[in-house]
From TrEMBL:
Domain Ribosomal RNA small subunit methyltransferase E methyltransferase: 73-234
Family: Belongs to the RNA methyltransferase RsmE family.
One of the GO BP terms on file: rRNA base methylation
The protein's name: Ribosomal RNA small subunit methyltransferase E
InterPro entries hit by this protein: Alpha/beta_knot_MTases, PUA-like_sf, RsmE, RsmE_MTase_dom, RsmE_PUA-like, tRNA_m1G_MTases_N
A family per Pfam: PUA_4
Any single GO CC term annotated in Swiss-Prot or TrEMBL for this entry: cytoplasm
Function: Specifically methylates the N3 position of the uracil ring of uridine 1498 (m3U1498) in 16S rRNA. Acts on the fully assembled 30S ribosomal subunit.
Length: 240
């Protein structure tokens, strides 16, 4: 697979497209690519083209030669509803969720979250996470971007309509994933914070129609639980 770059511009076979500054920097300065080397561009909406690096009036560009029809998207649409985690745990969660096929990551604020975001920090952190999602898509071959939504409280998210099933990981409760029927549409998978869900939150989730599910008798860390569940769901009903 040639180096892949997210390029949110119309991609048309036969055109020579000047590369956005960030893509040009990555290709030329980071990867040390030279004119004539193969690359791939994808727009994040499902379109991808192969081509080669070239120049137009001294500006790095790509000559697009072939469309790539394969989207590499999983047949199961999972939104990871992840309680905010501290340090670089959220970076890890976003990156691996993209690799495992999640279509979106929705950060939520839970009672026992240690990380609190407010003001300018919110926008900066979401932009950071979205860039991590872009890099993960470039690496793993996806040509549709996983959306990273703005954080919101768990209560507010539970009140927001979701077109699909809502499942919540609750240690010691619920049905094992292996014993569940395949979902008939999109799934929102809720993962608690480092300190776990409170009883009040579990009650609110149940009232909102969230189905408790289990990953077995062991209690997993917040940065492990969602990724383990994603992998298991893809093995059971996805494309693994």
């Amino acid at each position: 697979m040639p180096p892949r770059f997210h390029c949110p511009l119309p991609l048309v076979v036969g055109q020579t497209l000047p590369l956005p500054a960030e893509v040009a920097h990555h290709a030329i300065r980071v990867l040390r690519m030279r004119p004539g080397e193969a690359l791939a561009l994808f727009d994040g909406q499902g379109h991808e083209c192969l081509g080669e690096l070239t120049e137009v009036d001294g500006t790095p560009a790509a000559r697009l030669t072939e469309a790539v029809p394969d989207t590499r998207e999983a047949p199961l649409a999972i939104t990871l509803v992840q309680a905010l985690a501290v340090a670089d745990k959220m970076d890890w969660i976003v990156q691996k969720a993209v690799e495992l096929g999640a279509v979106a990551v929705q950060p939520v604020e839970a009672e026992r979250c240690v990380l609190k975001l407010a003001g300018d920090r919110v926008g900066k952190r979401v932009a950071h996470w979205q860039q991590i999602a872009v890099g993960a898509a470039e690496q793993c071959g996806r040509n549709r971007l996983c959306r990273v939504e703005n954080p919101q409280s768990l209560s507010r998210w539970l009140q927001t309509p979701f077109n699909g099933e809502r499942w919540i990981l609750a240690p010691g409760e619920g049905v094992a994933l292996s014993g569940m029927q395949p979902p008939q549409g999109p799934v929102a998978l809720l993962i608690g914070p480092e300190g776990g869900w409170s009883e009040v939150e579990l009650a609110k989730a149940g009232a909102a129609g969230c189905r408790p599910v289990s990953l077995g008798p062991r209690v997993l860390r917040t940065e492990t639980a969602g990724l383990a569940a994603l992998a298991a769901m893809m093995a059971l009903w996805g494309d693994y």
